[in-house]
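Q: what does this look like with heme C bound?
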Amino acid sequence: MRVRIAASVTVLGLLWAGMPTASAAESPTYNQDVGSILLENCASCHRPNQVAPMSLLSYKDARPWARAIKSKVASREMPPWFADPSYGTFSNDISLTDDEIATVLAWVDAGSPEGDGPAPEAPRFSDAGWSHPSGTEPDYVIEFPIAWEVPAEGETPNFNLYTPLPFNDVLRVSATQVRPGNYAATHHITTGLVNMPPGKVLGTGPAWSGGPMVDYVPVDDPDADPAAQAIPAGRPQGGRRALDPEAREEAAAQRAGFGPYIPGVGADVARAGQVREIRGDLFDYVIWNLHYQATGKLEQARPSIGAWIATEQSSQRVRSLGLREATSEGRQLVAAPPLTAEERALAGPSQVGQGLNPTLDPIPPNDGNWTVTGVGAFQNDAVIQSLFVHAHVRGNDFTWLLTYPDGREEVLLRVPNYNFDWQFEYELAEPLRVPAGSTVKSIARYDNSRNNRRNPAPQKEVYWSEQSWDDMYLTNVSYINADDTSEN
Ligand code: HEC
């Protein structure tokens, strides 16, 4: 700080003397000001083995990118963050403050000087590119057994492969991460826990209907005894079943597995005192729902899963409220019923359980303002922790409303410019306690007009599915039951 005071005294002196105001002494430097901003706000993505195209870990790394940094920081495109700052405060908000932005711009305008003094030290990062904020490597890693080849051109549909889950007990974890193995070629990955459908075994089959033959596909078991095609007692089947809401939520939590890989999102770390359970006692396989995109050259992608074992003995469990009672354009609210066996067969394996909502009408051609509203109600007193939104390229904006039982309303989150490339879980800085009977509504607007420059086909009716040329409405709230908190 003493340096700064001295610098401003100099500037005043110069001004007094009628000298030009731009002085090397007043401009921010990398070592004093800008380095720490870049390390804290950019390096999580801008480092080797990560999603961003270049590293910003040192002065030498950052200097050649100064002009680009100025332009992306000034336009607030970098760091990517989409919540309207007027509503809510989020602990994973990576946006820069106005002061930080001004500092970065002034640094570039002054010719990006390195400055005196020692360079700021980079935080600790995992050598293998894992993203736990502590910089530690995971305690447990499951590597996908093969490297998938993504052709240089053309669309690869979503597909599912199964690999055996390598443990039979309950793994209690504090964090998990799914790493894509190839950021450029990976659109997204979701993982879940499943059992083999009756009469099937893991074998070689088409990756998707008409797709290439690969291992790790459920195929008919030639040795299956039709009389013995039941799932062993106590083991849940894959797919959705007609259960009461509580039991469905429980089943969904059990199947959730290691979570997704979504662009820009690193390790999923539980809050202090909370754990997640990976139920190896109930499930035998990991299902990998893989979605790749062509990059113009042949790519190889071999994803992996990392888990950080929980050291705490807490029983506080993170739950998820899916806003599945949805309506579009003011029609009557309808709950998405569990898919019937026929619907499931028609939908194909890639769509089941992935947010396909057979009750939503398609988005009409050229409609620039199509809304979908989803609602979920808390059955018990709850503590809301985070909000998640997912749509594809027609997704335009999202508004989250909380309604208390007495009718009071509060905006929890607004995402005015939803961007398909970045899907953040919005973590409330202060978890919010709400009484039983409160509802959460998420209102999404879709733009299927030609004004949406990402829209590949405004003239088309858009259906709901996992394929990125279709669209999705998937939003949920992570919460804990308030009773769980009071135990602490
Ligand atoms: C959540 C991950 C993430 C964070 C955090 C992030 N970036 Fe990026 N950045 C990316 C990705 C991915 C790209 C390439 C794709 C794109 O441009 O959207 C990128 C692109 C850029 C580019 C353009 C590079 C080019 O090829 O022209 C600049 C400049 C940049 N980032 C600067 C920054 C700065 C400065 C920060 C911090 C203040 C930052 N980024 C934080 C992920 C991130």
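The CA atoms of residues 195 and 237 lie 6 Å apart. The chain has three domains: 25-123, 125-223+235-317, 318-488.
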